[in-house]
Amino acid sequence: MPPRSSSSQSGGGPARGRGGGGRGGGRGGHGGGGARAGPPQLVGRGGAQMAGAGGQPSGLPAAHVKTVGVRRFAFGTAGKRINVFTNACEATVPQNIIYHYDVAIASEKTLPPRFTMLLIKQLQLQPEFHPAGAYDGKKNLFMPHIIDFGGANSHDYNIALNGNSQPRDRPPRVYKIRITKAAELNPEVLQLFVEGKQGLSDGVETTLTALNIAIRMLPMQKFPFNTRSFFTESEARNVGQGFQLRRGFFQSLRPAIGRLLFNIDLSTGLFYRDGPLIDVALEVVGNRDPASLSFTRGLPERMFRELERYVKGVRVSVQPAARGAPPTIVTINTLTREGAQNITFKMSDGNSTNVASYFQRLSGRALHYPGIICAKTSRGAVLPMERCTIIPGQLARKQIPPDVTRAMVEFSTKRPADRLASIRNGFAALAHGQSEYVRNFGLNINEQTFPMSIEARQLPAPKLEYGKGSKDTSVIPRDGAWNMTEKKLFKPETISRWVMVVFETQNRFRKDTETSVVRSFIEGCQSVGMNVEEKNPIVKYASGQGGYPRIKDELRQAGLECVQKHKVNKGPDMLLIILPDGGNDIYRAVKHFGDIAQGVVTQCLLAKKCTRANLQYWANVCLKLNSKLGGVNVVPAAGVSAQLSDPQNPTIIMGADVTHPAPGLDTPSYSALVGSVDSRGVKYIPRTSVQASRQEIIADLETMSKEILKSYMEYQIRIEEKPAQASKPKRLLFFRDGVSEGYFGEVMEQEVKILKKVCQELKIAPRITFIVVGKRHHYRFFPEHPEARGEADRSGNCIAGTVVDRGITHPLEYDFYLQSHGGLLGTSRSAHYSVLYDDNNFIPDALQALCYTLCHIYARSTRSVSIPAPVYYADIVCARAKIHYDPSDTSDLGTVTSHSNFQSYVEGFRPLHNLHKTKMYFM
Q: How open is the CA angle 445-449-455, to the nearest 5 degrees?
């Protein structure tokens, strides 16, 4: 965990990485300034305020401690108390001083961590480095003792080591390494931190970093690694397209309330498939004939680009041209467009030859495929593919193909009991008890305490309300699920005019099929309360050939025919689109036409599914369609959550997300903001924007939040008929997704500042609560007695509504874990809620109930979801970014290939149509 900046501010100016304006001073965001409306604090309940050592409440931080987010002031008490297992065990904080050294390796290029690790291992053979220290592969070396530099603060060492591509007949290269003392770390500060007696400081974070590196040292020397995960060969699966999946183990030391924990979990790594490069290349392009890897034999440009992206950065063992010479390890940079027989160069004697002849002359063996494309290194060396072999154990840090993504999900899926058993095996693979580095630092990981038993609670599910005409208008979910049998949508929409456009051939989608689908669709709508006035719609067959221009014309023509049929100056309410298998390009074109160009609702269905669909299928389609048209599917019953529908405190709920490009792609990031406009917090409107690549702060938050707040007040006045003064929100709940812990302070500080500025400009003053919702953590919860009634659902997971705010939570700050959804496959992952700013003074029970309720209003499901619906919506809106670009461009990245800089991406990003800015078009 990288150190954040200083946390010394209390009431002065804001600090990077910290809550400004006195964030640590109290529960709210102003350190005690201003009126404190809202629910009172709960004290003296559930043991939360029992006195502990030193007079401070048990498990709660001391009053003087400064925090990044809101300081924990109580624990939740609502719900049934239970115990669950978690994948962690206890660790002890060492007592000896840790010495931090800066490492500077003189090199004209950045050396890979696997090589720098070898250098430092060689360096530590020097006697002054005994016992050995822990190195992070970059610039940090932590030692369990001080290094004797003879009175100096630093020392230069010359370390000889052969690189992978170094010829064996040359002397090893000598690397100059400067070791400089940086700091002395007293682990006592970490102990005080977990005890709640000291705030997070650079010393605490650096100490924690040092210990995490110590536990990584041994496995980093044995296994391929990626940050904190290590991958063994015990479980591996080839999944096509040149990739292999491997099972690995994640490990991390985490501070918790009153103790240091060791968190261990399973992880999945994407690897390049090892073996002959030519075989792997054929797998990537989907061909079996090596001769096809040639432009003269029809290699498609798209396949060439895909293969070049695949091989860039891949390390291969090359059979040398000279007979008897040992193989050389090199890294591929690009591919040639010509074959080895057509690439000529001058040799040292001045004569010209081609690559194929060169390899034949020196090795005595002709190339089998001299006409196919070749690999090329960054230094310009050309290598025939058939002489290259991909070496094993290489992680692929690239965008994952969709088919591989599905395989990865399947490979990663393990039922709770199986996952726990596999995690136990990880202790043997990581071998902390055999690690000299762990022993040298005096660190002890108590494996006997795995898995840990911690206290949890099961929250009651919120009652949900459906519409008039339902046999029973209310329903209470069970295990995170319910059904719509004999239920009507809360506010169903009416479809007056519609058109069905079929992008499938008439011999595959016959007239009788067409009639059946239209009839079934209408019956499905009526079953949930939606009225379809047009019983005999226009059905138009269209072709997906010709790309977006033709698809656009086909859809426009269908709309014109609807206008002419009904003799009204208004197009259809919606287009029902029937897609063939593999119709992703058609889907993107349809969505761009509907959402960006015309503002017409489109509902896409796969032909193979809708032709044999039952009533349940059509009910699920209607959940999406009704929301897109402006209707409401389900609402929390009155009184379930006063935080959502308290008339004395009108509340707007926002969900925000930022998505970044996949590794290896230099494309923009996209941000999204959704906000509720109704009084029950179920109807959301979206905004989205493009911003600089991998920027964490939402760049266009000011504009997007202002538009949503205006829309909220307009809706309250125009639709809910409230007076102007009552239309102003008094509470703003902001759920933020996609923020790593190291950016909590910075994101909260800047984005809350923007929200306050916008509210001030609009002359409103809602109390703001800012919560980060995280899913990328590695804590999992397991029922202690899965066979016992009420402790596990049918999948073997903990019951939906399981909340944990003790045992593993932050030593100082207001956070909790909520497993809000029922299990289906594998082991469920809870969401981690970190309350970074809270003017509303939400007590834990109220906030946890509110979050749990929001997980039940996701409009296109009759199951509770794993994160609050507004966060889910923001995530979907971000994922839809590619439809904002002209589909005439068929870029594999979903963006315009001619965009060579950020400004071009901005200019190419088309805004959402105005008619869709007030609808949930993304459902």
A: 125
C-alpha torsion sign, points 771, 774, 779, 782? positive
The CA distance from 206 to 211, in Å, is 9
Rounded distance, CA 103 to CA 119, Å? 11
Q: Tell me the C-alpha distance between 883 and 479, whole Å.
A: 36
Q: What is the pLDDT of residue 321?
A: 76
What is the residue extent of each domain of the chain?
275-391, 492-629
Q: How far is it, in rounded angstroms, from Cα 413 to Cα 780?
A: 13
Residue 124 has pLDDT above 90, yes or no: yes
CA geometry: angle at 520 spanning 514 and 521, to 5°? Answer: 90
Strand pairing partners for 636? Answer: 464
Per-residue confidence band for 406, with pLDDT thresholds at 50, 70 and 90: confident
What percent of the chain lies above the pLDDT cut of 70? 92
With contact defined as beta carbons under 8 Å apart, do 88 and 451 qualify? yes
Per the model's pLDDT, the better-predicted residue between 889 and 506 turns out to be 506
Kindly report the backbone phi and psi dihedral angles of residue 464, in degrees, each rounded to the nearest multiple of 5, phi listed first: -115, 150
DSSP 398-416: SPPPHHHHHHHHHHH---H
Report the candidate in 596, 590, 219 with the shortest Cα–Cα distance to residue 437.
219
Query: Torsion over CA of 238, 241, 246 and 249, rounded to 10 degrees?
Result: -160
Containing 876, the helix (H) or strand (E) segment is helix 869-879
Q: Is 191 helix (H, G, I), strand (E, B) or coil?
A: helix
Q: What is the pTM of this model?
A: 0.90
Q: How confident is the model at residue 163 (pLDDT cuts 50, 70, 90)?
A: low
Q: How distant is the alpha carbon of residue 461 from its chain centre?
A: 27
Q: Provide the pLDDT for residue 665.
A: 77
**In which element (H, E) is residue 264 found?**
strand 259-272
Let me know: does 822 contact 833? Beta carbons within 8 Å: no
Predicted pLDDT at 228: 87
Distance, CA of 220 to CA of 619 (rounded, Å): 51
Contact 600, 574 (CB under 8 A): yes
492-629: CATH topology:
Rossmann fold (3.40.50)
CATH number of 275-391: 2.170.260.10
Cβ pair 908, 882 in contact under 8 A: no
- Asked if 480 and 863 count as a contact pair (C-beta separation under 8 A), the reply is yes
Averaged pLDDT for residues 828-838: 97
Look at residue 801 in the predicted model and tell me its pLDDT: 97
690 close to 701: Cβ distance less than 8 angstroms: no
User: Which residues lie below 8 Å from residue 638, measured CB to CB, with a gap of 6+?
Assistant: 465, 645
859 Cβ contact list (under 8 Å, min separation 6): 623, 624, 626, 627, 632, 633, 634, 682, 869, 920, 923
Contact in structure between 773 and 780 (CB atoms under 8 Å): no
Q: Is the N-terminal amide bond of 783 cis, ω within 30° of 0?
A: no
Block residue for tokens 């070049």: 308
Distance, C-alpha 129 to centroid of its chain: 40
Cβ proximity of 311 and 278 under 8 Å: no
Secondary structure class of 679 (helix, strand, coil): coil
Query: Of 181, 231, 228, nearest to 209 (Cα)?
Result: 228
Average pLDDT over every residue of 613-641:
93
CB 247 within 8 A of CB 232: yes
In the block, tokens 């003269």 appear at 296
